[in-house]
Write a structure and sequence with these properties.
Length: 93
């Protein structure tokens, strides 16, 4: 939660936003980062605008998997209700 709050307090500000420079989406947030990149990092930096939405979709799938994993391992009434709602609503989306 503190990282999330810091991100929203200083969005996209270098040295203040904790999400800058973390992960493949932020590989080339600055021109210096783009020129210093090599290998797969350079590829991601060069095509990050085109890769943003596919990477975001993959992240969404990962969040679904994590949510299902959490529901299966929690095993209480709230998790059962959440699992039922996911089973009913997910095919509709």
């Amino acid at each position: 939660m503190p990282k999330h709050n810091a991100h929203h307090a200083w969005p996209n500000q270098i040295d203040r936003d904790p999400d800058i420079g973390v992960g493949p989406i932020a590989f080339a947030f600055t021109p210096e980062a783009a020129t210093n990149a090599n290998g797969s990092t350079r590829f991601l930096a060069r095509y990050q605008a085109w890769l943003f939405f596919p990477l975001l979709a993959i992240e969404g799938i990962g969040l679904h998997i994590t949510g299902i994993h959490h529901i299966v391992h929690k095993r209480n009434r709230a998790a059962a209700v959440e699992g039922l709602l996911l089973a009913v609503i997910w095919p509709c989306t």
